[in-house]
Amino acid sequence: MLNIHKASIFFQGEPLFSDITFRLGNGDRVGLIGKNGAGKSTLIKILSGAYAMDSGEIYVNGEKANINNPRDARSYNIETIYQTLALADNLDAASNLFLGRELVSPIGFVDDDAMEAETRKIMGRLNPNFHKFKDPVSALSGGQRQSVAIARAVYFNARILIMDEPTAALGPHETQMVSELIAQLKAEGIGIFLISHDIHDVMELCDRASVMKNGQLVGTVDIGDVTDDDLLGMIILGKHPDEQ
Fold first, then answer.
1. In this structure, are residues 146 and 85 in contact, taking their beta carbons and an 8 Å threshold?
2. Rounded CA gap, 178 and 166, in Å?
3. Which domain holds residue 53?
4. Alpha helix locations (H) across the chain?
5. 194 touches 205 (CB < 8 A)
6. pLDDT tens-digit profile of 129-167?
7. Inter-axis angle of helices 112-126 and 172-187, nearest 10
8. Full-model pTM
9. Tally of CB atoms within 10 A around 14
10. Sign of CA dihedral 127, 131, 137, 140
11. Number of independent structural domains in the chain
12. The domain spanning residue 80 has which CATH number?
């Protein structure tokens, strides 16, 4: 579904992010972990169109992709859910889902009923327990807010979803809700990049883990083949478990 080949970014002649190669398959869940400054955010900004690579190539479904801005990324069905979720707290779920892409009636007025109906459909698919359609999202729990952000991405045909710290500051129940959402996205064939500082989250939510250190890719491992300590060693030592 997605191949990143030898992506590099330079700052004042020095490599900030060098020769990074990743792949993401249909329904694949890849956890991206590393210390602050490891390069995780840089990779996400490349894929979301916020940064342009100085060298390297991106392929989506086998075809070379030119991603120079967020609109380009969306044209390749790549959506990013940032840690802040980018929700308008004073608006309800439907207004947030269609923010900037509102449905209008034949005479040009915003069609609130149609937007709510579509929101109920997508939430029924992703989170059947969601019922607070009339409340502003400021009144929702962390897991419910995450549901709205995910629904917005999926409704607009995201096939590659980038999630930045999706369980940060959530309690056990809310974390479980997000875990179930991610499992549903996998079942629908959506590929997920999950950025996290929490090794336990990656071990629980992902199929593979890619570790970065100082702008380099340390390696990618199957979750079933490693332990928490193996991943911690990759983060600290910058070496694959076989080399430690």
1. yes
2. 7
3. 2-243
4. 40-48, 70-75, 93-97, 112-126, 142-155, 172-187, 199-205, 228-237
5. yes
6. 899 999 999 999 888 998 899 899 889 889 999 998 888
7. 90
8. 0.86
9. 8
10. negative
11. 1
12. 3.40.50.300
